[in-house]
Predict the structure.
Amino acid sequence: MMTSRRLLLGLFFFLPLLLAACTAPVTVERVDPRTVHRELTANVLTVGEESGASRIVLYRWDLTERFESDPEGALAQLHAAVTGGRAGRDELFALAELSFLHAEQTGKQEYYLAAAVYAYALLFPHGAAEPLYPVDRRLRVAADLYNRGLTSGFASADRSVVELRGGTWALPFGELTVELDPKWLRWGDRRLVNFVPVADLEVGGLRERYRRTGIGAPLAASTVPFAPEVKLRDFVGRATKVPATALLRLDDPRRALATGRITGALEIYDGYTADAVEIDGQRVPLEVEPSAAFAYTLSESTIWDWELRGFLVGNLVRGLVVATKLGEARAQLLFMQPHRRGRIPVVFVHGTASGPGRWADMLNSLENDPWLRTRFQYWFFYYETGNPVTYSADVLRTSLRLVVDQLDPDGNDAALRHMVIVGHSQGGLLTKMTAIDSGTELWNTVSSRSLDELVLRESTREEFRRTLFLKPLPFVRRVIFIATPHRGSYVAGSWVAQWTAGFASLPKGFVDSVGELVTGNGGAVALSMGGLPRSVNHMTPGNPFVQTLASLPVAPGIAVNSIVAVKGQGPVEKDDDGVVEYSSAHLTGVESELVIHSGHSVHGHPLAIAEVRRILYKHGEEACRSVSLCGVTDHR
């Protein structure tokens, strides 16, 4: 009986051991490869937990449990191992990641900065050790830890902005002293201020989000003039946000870790002109978020508010004709960045009841093409779209002349003389009027008598001469028409459009000039549609103005490309885009015509964007060959 009981007790205690001995201590299980990949690539930035590489380091130094209970003590012990020469790259990576993890859990900014310092020391050892191999997964994670460490380490109390300034900051193991030369805050004639971390922004409304992966904290900066009382003439909108990158360049960080005194300098690069920097003897790309900065600009801009008002209110922006009489000429152009010598202007002209913001997807794509970015600059013309086409075209022509004269008074910048103008819908009609020799043809739609014969003040006569007797602008070398109603729009001819147009006010200067023309010259003047013309009248099929404009060829030496939209699937010759018929938008004798199945807003279509990109490549290469513009870059 006693023997049986002892046997049962033995089995009770030793059976688990016997069963364990029959099971392999190390096992594998086949799972989906994505599951394994997620496990291998998981890190603090993706899942909020340390990576497998950092867990290995903690285990190797018997710090796993201590990091759970005393993370700062564990980090200090690991730091001592590195500065004492007993540890290397593996531990340095773990210090960067684990410091960032602790900062995320506690909000302590000194650990964000420590993460950035450790990551920089790992990436750029300054000859003190071998850098990581380019295929090492930790390389990209370390760069991201540096970028995020800077963003959070220099963040304001509410984390809404990144405060870039010189000073001294506490580190868990010492202090960080930073210098900031004011030259890094200069952007043209403006100062960069209010740096917003774009990694925190969710972008909506743009079809593509571009990010140039590299080193540095990606930001969006506002701008202010250096002297508040100075009137800016760089044509950059007040709400423009500049894509910028903050780089903290550290002095021999691996050796400095041992002393606890880290020194460095902040450098700030704008994403339009800088793609890379040299660090530790190697060319390193900069991290830039241009799409996020662009979306931020558009989200805070007022351009959306006046699109419809720009159709109904003719005096919303004071026209250049009136302004010139007052001696205060002003160009109705917006730039995304200050003019840079050697870059060819591409001028976008929007359509009816629209505005510059409607070019967002096209600009976002073109601006992020590396080849185009170094050769072109993008300007936007804005105007009240209810005004007569002749009036708006005059404002466009005058704006372009004023800008070219202001930017290059001596005529030395050859790039400005290779301008491209891209017009959508009504904007295409304005675009054409920069590139034609009209002779007396346009004037003949107004009067059967010579302008010089009519009873007018000389100032009014000059105004009509400038508006209706056109010569091609000498600096325009290419025009691109997109869904342009060369022979009118059937929608403009509808009673609804005509009725709506009647509510659109007109510029007082224009009304006064036409009034003087009519009252002083009896039956010598013909006003189409029985009254003062508006853009809708000028775009109505059969209108003498649009018929005459369609008959006038683009001047020799100016290249012409066309993009036409059709909505149906039948013969394009009988189709339309919902606003303009193919037969109206089609041109013969052009360099190229691309037909896209789309509605009237085809300028946001990916195929239209690709076509404009193709045309600009061709235009840029031709300009390179003719005036040696290839490879032109601009430096701070």
DSSP finds 25 helices and 16 strands in the chain. The CA atoms of residues 234 and 544 lie 39 Å apart. The first strand starts at residue 167 and ends at 171. The chain has a mean pLDDT of 86.
